[in-house]
Amino acid sequence: MRMSVATKICALLCVFLLYGTPPILQAEKHSLYYIYTALSKPVNLPGVYEFTAMGLLDDTQIDYYNSKEQKKIPKQTWMKEKLQEDYWEKGTQSRKSKEQWFDLNIDILMKRMRHSESDLHVLQWRHGCEVEQQGSELSFSKGISEYAYDGENFIYFDIKESMWVTSVDEALPTKRKWDSVPILNQYTKGYLEKECVDWLNKFREYADEELKQGSPPDVHVFARKSTKTKLKLTCMATGFYPGDVMMTIRKYGTSLPEYEVESTGIRPNHDGSYQMRMSVEINKSEEAEYDCFVSHKSMKEPNITEWRQQETTTESLTASESAYTEEPVLDKESDGRGDVGKASDSSATMFIFSLSLIFHFILIF
Ligand SMILES: *[C@@H]1O[C@H](CO)[C@@H](O)[C@H](O)[C@H]1NC(C)=O
Ligand SMILES: *[C@@H]1O[C@H](CO)[C@@H](O)[C@H](O)[C@H]1NC(C)=O
Fold it and tell me: Do 206 and 224 reside in the same domain of the chain?
């Protein structure tokens, strides 16, 4: 029986993304999961890649990688601000090598399953940990490392016994192979119980700090020709968190009435921050003083940025505008936070990344 591409993709997303509907909790729980998805061949659907990977902190996406861009990128402002360049560089290397690993292993599995190479197959890996917080005490509650083939569980790691458990007969050779290298199972167990929990706590700390601080908007004002005699003056505020903002375009210090102004409303950026744009048509010859007035709770004083007439450009989309224009995202699942701060964990980061590289080149299905 053949499933359609869409059904398969949905099946796997459903299995992995809708997995953990939160139960009713006594203790506060937090989770950090990484999900890797590889397809056996390219699919001609927009936004669907042969290989994707993402990190999820409490079910909110914090990073992303796909086989087209081949770059691990932050999905929250605080990830971008708090984790240094080398975290993203090593992360990119690690994801690239995992991409190769999946490429190799999906072939091995397809052969073992006697599946035709012309069909689409999907291999997924989900791993991560959960902690429980009781008062100020944090304790490890769950560690998962599991592989699924075509949306069905294939093999998973039993953290108590420190060994792999098969879900289908075809996974037996894999289990034998992987269990025969005890140090790798120790590494997996150690990663889930310790490293993963450390990262989870670190990420939560960063996110909390940023949430408290908030992130102020960058404010830009620019104009472009809209007709022979008119200009479109635009005020853009971006990168702010949380998403409430008060914004107006002012002429001689007085806010223009709403009906004269066109507004995009508040829209999310990819990194979890927000943006908003407002424009107004003005006469070209007009010499009035315009400014953009933005007030946000992260700033004591409002940001008042004046429009400088000489910055008007003749092109319809100017370099200055496109430089400030970050395309907003449509899904609103972001709860990213502000700005400021940094942390250095390079040696630990490097250590973990190099271990995970070794790990993945030995563990072949
Ligand atoms: C307003 O925003 C601009 C651009 O982000 C920045 O350069 C300027 O310092 C800000 N002004 C205030 C008062 O915060
Ligand atoms: C622009 O010019 C037109 C006619 O020249 C005038 O009626 C209109 O009020 C002006 N608009 C603004 C915003 O000054």
Answer: no
